[in-house]
Amino acid sequence: MIGARRRDGAETRQEALRVALDLFTEQGYEATSLRQIADALGINKASLYYHFPNKEAILRSVFERRGSEAAELLAWAERQPRSPELIREAVLRWVDSFSAEKLQGIRFLRGNPFIGRALADAEGDRIGDPLGRLSDLLVGLLPEPDGADAVLVRMALLSINAAVEAAVGADVPDTDVIAAARAAADALVREVLAR
């Protein structure tokens, strides 16, 4: 294309992740080829191979990045002063970290549960493990936590997943899905803190 700006390597990699996730979600993981991803990016297949040798590497990259974000949030929470208010701050940090692109990852997992499970089994649950540990840390901040508190905190952290599921079939913009998840998470945390 004349006049089109060339992407650098990091931009190409990032765009490849976005395009691949869109295609995987729209037409299925198995039905999507590396050729289709390269064509959608406007690059040749060899250029895509430079960044990702196969489709699994693309998925691994998506989940590794999100897993790193979950681990970073856990590390941040571990460094904070211990108080019940940390529950709200940590939960909302997680929900607020979502973007339209990250919602697409949840949609992909919803439509391809066996692939997501196989990746988690092969490489460990890079997202769920730190979120589970974060949940335990947050529940431990309560004066007399019980099982219901633990469930409510986990529900607050997973409010984004519930919002994506609830929006299926509705013509709702991603910004509204994220806003709904934030409102639900905040309500759940307020319930925990009021108990």
From TrEMBL:
Keyword DNA-binding: yes
Domain HTH tetR-type: 10-70
Domain of life: Bacteria
Keywords (A to Z) from UniProt: DNA-binding, Transcription, Transcription regulation
InterPro entries documented for this protein: DNA-bd_HTH_TetR-type_CS, Homeodomain-like_sf, HTH_TetR
One example GO MF annotation: DNA binding
DNA bind region: 33-52
Pfam families: TetR_N (PF00440)
Protein name: TetR/AcrR family transcriptional regulator
